[in-house]
Predict the 3D structure of the following.
Amino acid sequence: MTPASEITLERALDALHGTATEIFTGALEACNIASAFDRRIRFEGATMHRLLPDGSGPSEIDLAAYKRIFVIALGKAAAPMLEILLDRMKRRKGLRGICCTNQPPTKRNWRFRYFEGGHPLPNEESFSGARAALALLKKAKRDTLIFFLISGGGSAIFDLPLDPQITLEETVAFHQLLLASGAPINEINTLRKHFSAVKGGRLAMAAPEAAKVSFLLPDVPLRSLDALSSGPTSPDHSTVDDARELIARYALAEKFPPSIRAFFERNDLPESPGNKSWLPQFFPRQAKNAPPQTRRITAAASMSSEEPAFRDSVFEILLSTHDLVENARALAQKAGYFAVVDNSCDDWDYADAARYLLERFHALRAKQARLCLISVGEVTVTLNRTPGAGGRNQQFALACALELKNHPGERLTVLSAGSDGIDGNTQTAGAIADPTTAARARAFGFDPQESLSAFNACPLFTAIGDAVVTGPTGHNLRDLRLLIAEKEQLPVCTMGS
């Protein structure tokens, strides 16, 4: 290319980077927790109205019928969810609660105890928050209404081993091994459910007589909603045998600390709460592009008589990946792109997902002058060595960069970022790649293939200025991937033009 054409391409790619970033951040901003809450719930005096999405009309919960109201908020979005609930719900008599998050608020309500749990690995505050929640729930009787505010990340932020002899250090090792296994999130959380005293429905079981309402902000597939924070309030349909099969499949037993290996080998290892013989899946698989549904778990439909803790429990999905992808689609279309959604590689290995999406991308862009391929969900990374600084999104983006270098001079961009603003063990949300990424990285002294093999993509993307940095977003709606293409002969158009 001539110097002039190189400058033109550089400007075009810079514009595409900006467009991808604007679609990502704009889609997140449109996923407003407060607005989503108000679409589902309305408080009028002492009455809470549930605005059901199927058009069947609101159902009501009379707060005045309860002597006490407890709130347990856990996960990455626990603080904003709690703030919104307290702003809408004016009742304060008998109100107490726990908030366990990795980003505690600066403004705190004296009726609540706050804990700064660890993520992606638990810490001492994760244990303390779980203990405090269990202690509070023991006080709940028939005259108590409990609100559970559950968002992604709670599996680490809020945890306590079922076996009290297992230490924090051993629990951290357990989580590290699961994260490095390459298993999809629903399988990882099956093991967490059977390990933990506050997961797999056990948090709800701590207050069997109380009425319960769970507000959910899921970072898991809707077909596996009981994997959200490892399902602390939902009946669990996985079994001890399922957990042991996963341990064998991923060869984890020999890697576990001795105490955890012995725990899973116990003959008397208890099942997580749930009638395993006939319990239906917590949330049914939804039709493609269907909006999230509210479901009420009733005694007749869900639990046997010996487990009353789940009777008449109410579960409300506030936001989901459906909202994230539809907002991204709308923004891409507004910017003049032909938008295509493909979520079929959810929970795939990052390299397989990169190959699949790039093949789909190249096939589609051959027929479209301006294309945006959108994909939500998470990819997996199997660690076979101590990782550097990075995460699944940066790993995916770097794998794409190594393929895009085979398309020099073309206007192509890939963005992959986490909706929570944090990717792996870094403070970046993800990264952006294009056909020049590999060459620019080498100019800065990086070997892209070595960075990929070492799971050390963050320093590379930071050095070349292509890390996506948002800071904590208060969301956790899984990851968003954008693959954007424009024909060279067309003028570059940004979203603001």
Q: What stands out?
A: Residues 338 and 386 are 41 Å apart (CA to CA). The chain has 16 helices and 16 strands.
